[in-house]
């Protein structure tokens, strides 16, 4: 794709979907303990396992997302992060028992049991969600001078999203919905965010393409 | 739950009363002496002693709660009414041989059962090593060939017991977290797992609170899994003991006979067993339309305050 000829997705859209990704990360993390408690208990170490795996997955995601942003940054790849994160979150909903049961049976120590279960269920989707942040920065930044401000703005919004996801999930969602219903909500939100990026990209570029065609015609 | 520390009002218009209360509380504070503090990854534990009464207190910000107390000059005597009430389970299973207790506290329930039934195998599951340490050091709790403690989450312990095909004929659920029973120990799935490790003649005794809105959810969930249960409340206690078994519940006459048979043996622990049969009720006094608590839906600790 040629940068000069394509219209960028508006920065407000990038910032809005970054909010969604921050929100979903913490929604999944907050539900993590409840998902694992039937097999590994609700102890301190279950929180420890989940937070450790989320941090490691995000760390790797930041690194990979940053690398990927070097190569032809484009909204379609960006949208794919959201859709892939949604798809890789599905096993948490559909196969949680299938994943946790063999781990419970093979590992006696619930600390390591919960650690491996966290890796199996949360590492991949969280890592993909982590890629979104640096990639968003790349899409937002138009010049060196603005890069710091844009990065700051992006982390501000996605972290506010995380705060909202944490509070919303732990204070309210669990009161009204089942865990899987909340997770389906997150999946839908991520797919929705991906689709919004694709739609903006499609319409802006078809409009841009047409106007360019008119200019040249 | 039986005792709470109340804080003093600071209204100036009530200066005299305040002054009076202050001096009373000062006297109480000097009388109740902290003899030990144990660090824990869950909640720090304090052991306080007031005359002959020694209590284990979990530090909770909303006000201290005494979890277990022992009278040093009468160690067999069960200090709290809910502890005594839990022995109503013996009316359904008078001769337990395999006992499981979730939640050690100061160990008064397991120690009493060990004294009453020295041949019974007793498994105690306690999540917090610090509680085990304190129970051993300050509350005279000792493990022996018949009575063993496992430091584990009760849910994990029960799941593993089910896998090993282990069965119990007397199960006491008395595991409490910071506020209340942890959510994953309140669900339909957990109770089904507990059910799967009960013998045909086994009894389940669960210590709960009789607090309002949450009470309904909890009752509905027990009803869902066990069909019926004895609801055991006393006007002097904020606790509600749920007692149930796999087979249908015995008629009151049978409870009375069993109470008469066992009353003497329980006298020295201060358990007024003869008073209990009349208090075991199967009347539904909760809102049946409440949602069953499940692993998918168990916001129990959010519901509690209502």
Structure description:
The complex is a heterodimer of chains A (217) and B (306). Chain A has 217 residues and is mainly α. Chain A has one domain (8-206): Growth Hormone, Chain: A (Up-down Bundle), CATH 1.20.1250. In chain A, 87% of the residues lie in helices and 0% in strands. Chain A has seven helices and no strands. The two termini of chain A are 22 Å apart. In chain A, 44% of the residues are buried. Chain B is an alpha/beta fold. Chain B has a single domain (81-303), classed as Rossmann fold (3-Layer(aba) Sandwich), CATH 3.40.50.150. In chain B, the strands form two sheets. An eight-stranded mixed beta sheet of chain B has the order 7-6-5-8-9-11-10-12, with helices on both faces. Chain B has a four-stranded antiparallel beta sheet with strand order 1-2-3-4. The longest helix of chain B has 17 residues, at 15-31. Chain B is globular. Chain B starts with 14 loop residues before the first helix and ends with a helix. The chains are: A mainly alpha (217), B alpha/beta (306).
């Amino acid at each position: 794709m040629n940068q000069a000829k394509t219209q960028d997705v508006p920065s407000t859209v990038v910032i809005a979907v970054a909010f969604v990704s921050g929100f979903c990360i913490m929604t999944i993390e907050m539900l993590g303990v409840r998902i694992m408690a039937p097999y590994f208990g609700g102890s301190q170490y279950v929180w420890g396992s989940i937070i450790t795996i989320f941090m490691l997955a995000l760390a790797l995601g930041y690194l990979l997302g940053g690398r990927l942003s070097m190569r032809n940054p484009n909204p379609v790849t960006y949208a794919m992060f959201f859709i892939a994160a949604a798809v890789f979150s599905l096993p948490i909903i559909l196969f949680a028992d299938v994943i946790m049961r063999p781990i419970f049976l093979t590992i006696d120590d619930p600390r390591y049991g919960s650690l491996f279960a966290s890796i199996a269920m949360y590492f991949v989707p969280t890592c993909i969600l982590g890629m979104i942040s640096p990639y968003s920065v790349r899409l937002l930044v138009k010049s060196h001078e603005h890069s710091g401000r844009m990065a700051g703005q992006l982390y501000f919004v996605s972290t506010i999203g995380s705060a909202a996801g944490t509070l919303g999930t732990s204070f309210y969602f669990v009161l009204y919905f089942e865990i899987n219903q909340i997770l389906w909500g997150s999946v839908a939100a991520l797919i929705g965010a991906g689709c919004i990026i694709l739609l903006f990209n499609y319409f802006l570029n078809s409009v841009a393409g047409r106007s360019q065609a008119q200019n040249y015609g | 739950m039986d005792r709470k520390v109340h804080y003093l009002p600071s209204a100036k218009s009530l200066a005299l009363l305040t002054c009076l209360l202050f001096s009373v509380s000062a006297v109480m504070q000097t009388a109740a002496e902290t003899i030990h503090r144990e660090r824990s990854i869950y909640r720090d534990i304090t052991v306080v002693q007031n005359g002959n009464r020694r209590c284990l207190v979990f530090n909770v910000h909303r006000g201290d709660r005494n979890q277990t107390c022992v009278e040093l000059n009468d160690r067999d005597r069960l200090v709290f009414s809910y502890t005594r009430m839990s022995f109503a389970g013996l009316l359904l299973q008078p001769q337990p041989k395999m006992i499981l207790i979730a939640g050690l506290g100061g160990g008064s329930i397991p120690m009493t059962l060990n004294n009453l039934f020295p041949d019974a195998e007793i498994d105690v599951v306690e999540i917090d090593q610090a509680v085990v340490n304190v129970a051993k050091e300050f509350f005279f709790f000792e493990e022996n060939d018949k009575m063993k403690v496992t430091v584990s989450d009760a849910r994990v312990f029960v799941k593993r017991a089910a896998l090993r095909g282990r069965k119990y004929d007397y199960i006491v659920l008395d595991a409490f977290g910071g506020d209340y029973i942890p959510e994953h120990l309140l669900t339909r799935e957990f109770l089904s797992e507990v059910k799967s490790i009960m013998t045909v003649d086994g009894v389940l005794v669960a210590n709960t609170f009789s607090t309002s809105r949450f009470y309904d959810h909890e009752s509905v969930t027990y009803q869902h899994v066990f069909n019926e249960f004895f609801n055991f409340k006393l006007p002097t206690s904020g606790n509600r003991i749920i007692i149930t078994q796999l087979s249908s519940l015995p008629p009151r006459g049978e409870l009375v006979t069993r109470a008469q048979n066992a009353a003497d043996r329980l006298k020295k622990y201060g358990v007024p067993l003869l008073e209990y049969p009349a208090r075991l009720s199967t009347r539904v006094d909760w809102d049946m339309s409440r949602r069953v608590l499940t692993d998918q839906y168990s916001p129990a600790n959010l519901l509690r305050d209502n």
